[in-house]
Amino acid sequence: MIKKGIGVLLTLCFLSPGLAKAQTPFSRGVNLTGWFQVNSPGQIQFTRYTKHDLADIKSLGCDVIRLPINLHSMTSGSPSYTLDPLFITFLDSVVTWSEQLDMYLILDNHSFDPIASTSPDIDDILIPVWTQMAQHYKNRSDYIIYEILNEPHGIAAATWGIIQGQVINAIRSADTKHTIMVGGVNYNTYTELQNIPVYSDPNLIYTFHFYDPFMFTHQGASWNSPSMEPLAGVPFPYNASEMPACPDVLKGTWVESSLNNYINDGTVAHVKSLIDIAVAFRNARNVKIFCGELGVYIPNSDPADRVYWYSIVRQYLEEKGISWTTWDYQGGFGLFNKGSNQLFDHDLNIPLIEALGLNAPPQTPFEIQPETTGFKVYTDFIGHNINDVSYGNGTLNFYSSNLPNNDNYCIDWKGFTQYNTVGFDFDPDKDLSFLVTGGYALDFMVRGNATGIKFDVRFLDTKTSDTDHPWRMGFTIDETVAAWDRRWHHVHVDLGAFNERGAWDSGSWYNPEGKFDWSRVDRFEVSTEYTGTAGKEIWFDNIHITELDTALVREIGTVGIRDLQVTDNMKLTVKPNPFNILTIISYYLSDKTPVSLSIMSISGSKIRNLVNEVRPPGFYSSEWDGCSDNGTTVPGGVYLCLLTTSDSSVVCKIIKS
């Protein structure tokens, strides 16, 4: 049986120009996972991807991106489920990038737990969330598409059909323009397409997901029940001589039954027959269909078999005129070589790219080069090619507007316990050897709310072999370094002052052995290695690796002990006040309203207009730098801040020193 021949793959790749044209306005693309799939807006690592990354994806030949969003966690919660302004700010940027690149963007409501059943009351969330989304994006281009909910499951098809219809109507009450994507239950399977009601809305796309044969595509997956992590080596297509034995822990489960039936399920003909179910639905209903997810999990699948599966599925989908987005771009199902840094210019899986009929860009070997100029770890955003790998209890917000020392945001960390960590993973690893000998330092701003705060800042190197360990170089920060008086303090620690702290590896502790490697640094961490954390809160800003020791404490105000509390319709707070360089004006809106925020002289003359627009409910903050509308710095003295909405206004004094 021919399955891995280069000639077969090349034939499949060159078939695409003559294949049936997709009915949807887009044809092929990727799921951009792990970006907006977080538990709060403050956890979105916005710089994980940029417009340049979207342009790279387009250069492959893609014209659509499906963006999974943990949408329900981007709200204020019950009962109003008001969309968070920070989330909207981030999403607006992605929408703009896609429009500028002429790429379709599917806003996929990926509020999804593969184990927990979809609630029959989920309309309580879906209707307000999608009404707000539609209201906000109703005037954007046709490139924007709404996907109501990813993979509903554990809910009756009839119940879901009614709910989905209600959400369609809610969207249409605000937006009659944009396409809506709908799907069936049982994880958007193709067999459930027929059970979706006949909706009257003419501007719908019906989505399904394709991961068959499941024994092949999900071998090694830990999120199933039971876990398929022990399963490896299942071939595609079926080959009796290559079939692995069922792992002992999976005997007696549905996995063993599926393996026994793989002689039937693991064939090319069977795969095509399953796609034909979706085709038959499309033809019977005369509707547009789309394969929103397809893919093979990397860790335990044979690379050549994996490429062959993609070539077969992609070619047959396109032969039938079905557009698709593969799961995913980077990650366990991604387009990059196993175990690589997943860099576009160096690590793309070229046989897989060709099997998907995409454009294969030139690749060059990647080699770590010594850092020679320093870099930013955090300044409003985590640095590009640095990933958040924090863990532990409590709340971590990378976008706190509570008196940042620089620009718009700072990091706010509270509720942590011993051994919790704020982690920044360098991807790829960084060679800091030149910086260590060149007098560079870790430089940052920090403040704390109570005496007794103590934590370590540390670097971890890369474990390079089974006998190696991720060694740590650390430095302890306590009140001898920064007074915990709720004000910003500048910390500058020479890299040469760090000392080796040992290693924690696979559940065991290893004492220092002098083996830390500055040329292969994997990550930077802030870790609470100590007890006595109750009630402690720490803020960080402007984390740099630099040779300069010229940073300034710009924000001299004292941070509030509590977060802003709402006591009436809109509360206006100015901090610091008095101020010299910059002050933050914060307020809360309980309803959607026109908002005007202005700085006035004591005699009532307008000096600066900060806000003049309609805003939805939520918390907001604006900066005043002490300048008038024409950019002139105003003299010290007393000024008025006036906040006006449709039904009320409030004023407070601001003192500029």
Instruction: Please count the beta strands (DSSP E, at least 2 residues each).
Output: 29
Radius of gyration based on Cα positions: 27 Å
Strand order in the sheet with the most strands: 1-2-3-4-5-6-7-8
Based on helices, strands and strand pairing, what is the structural class?
Answer: alpha+beta
End-to-end separation in angstroms reads: 82 Å
Globally, the shape reads: globular
Describe this structure in words.
The chain starts with 5 loop residues before the first helix and ends with a strand. The strands form 5 sheets. The protein has an 8-stranded parallel barrel with strand order 1-2-3-4-5-6-7-8, surrounded by 4 helices. The protein contains 13 helices and 29 strands. It has 657 residues and is α+β, with helices and mostly antiparallel strands.
Quick recap of the structure?
The chain is built from 13 helices and 29 strands.
